[in-house]
Design a protein that fits this description.
Two copies of one chain form a homodimer.
Chain A lengths: L11 H9 L4 H9 L5 H8 L3 H13 L3 E7 L4 E6 L1 H4 L2 H15 L7 E5 L4 E3 L1 E5 L11 E5 L12
Antiparallel strand pairs in A: 1-2, 3-4
Chain B binds a DNA duplex through helix 3 and helix 4.
Chain lengths: ~160, ~160
DNA sequence: CGGTATCCCATTTGATACTG
DNA sequence: CAGTATCAAATGGGATACCG
């Protein structure tokens, strides 16, 4: 049986996962954010099978998250670059990283630390409210359905 | 061929995905955040196959993200509740939702809107710096490797 | 209600080889 | 370098039946 597609679910979480929820995809994105652009560099860094990598890159291009761009004429060479849509996945990546830092790091601490250039401090990422700037916590948020959308965070968890 | 495990990668993104990166898992979490606690309610809402759901719940329990709790003695009935570790996945969920709202919503807008009770406004989630509160953008962040960790965002993307 | 057990096959994955 | 082609194995996923 073909696995269920999330594309038609009326849910932004599901529809996002339809695009980036496959095994390996977010690690490809991690590399892209770290500046990797070329097929063999993705492949070497990740240790992913070449056919799988080709499929993932293709899909990311199809969805407009990466752009395949000619960077050399003879012989023809292409590279993959993040689009605005791709860059916009940064919060997803950092949220994943943040959770891993908190819950999977050993005594030596997280493998990677972040420095926010603007303020000069070592920082972690916080999910905050676009209106008041405070941290967004599950219990302090209420979800409103529009149309047929299913409620998220509708009840006390 | 067995698929590659991300567990041993020295990367918080990879290790997080090892736990919640499988197909369906984050949708199970979505339901959990929305207050769903019982097997059949997860099943009915998601339309997931029962054996797959059982496997996902089991894995989430194994990793301490959900807790299986007896809520009725005769007959014995169990429910699944978010632990602190589970609640801490909220930023991941909202980041996924935010991206989907931006890039996959039709003209009618996002299926679900959020109201931040503390400030009373309809809000979206923003990833911000723990130190200065400003929004964290890829180009304004530098990554530092600790130990053998691979760099993230090390070069210009 | 809250699962297990089984079946079964489509898909995915990894390995390897090959090409321009 | 940047893929495509091929292949076998394994697993993932769905459907269904069953059980205390």
């Amino acid at each position: 049986m073909r696995r269920t597609s999330f594309a038609d679910m009326n849910c932004s979480v599901a529809r996002t996962l339809e695009v980036v929820g496959e095994w390996w995809t977010m690690l490809v994105m991690r590399e892209a954010f770290s500046g990797v652009r070329r097929f063999d560099e993705f492949q070497g860094r990740l240790g992913i099978a070449r056919n799988v990598l080709a499929a993932r890159l293709q899909r990311l291009v199809d969805f407009g998250i990466l752009e395949r761009r000619l960077y050399q004429e003879r012989p023809e060479r292409y590279e993959y670059r993040l689009t605005e849509k791709g860059f916009d996945l940064y919060p997803v990546l950092l949220s994943l990283m943040r959770w891993g830092d908190r819950w999977t790091a050993g005594p030596e601490g997280p493998p990677v630390r972040l420095v926010h250039q603007n303020c000069g401090h070592e920082a972690t990422s916080v999910l905050s409210c676009s209106e008041c700037g405070e941290e967004l916590k599950p219990r302090e948020v209420r979800a409103l359905m529009s149309g047929t959308g299913r409620p998220l965070l509708d009840r006390e968890a």
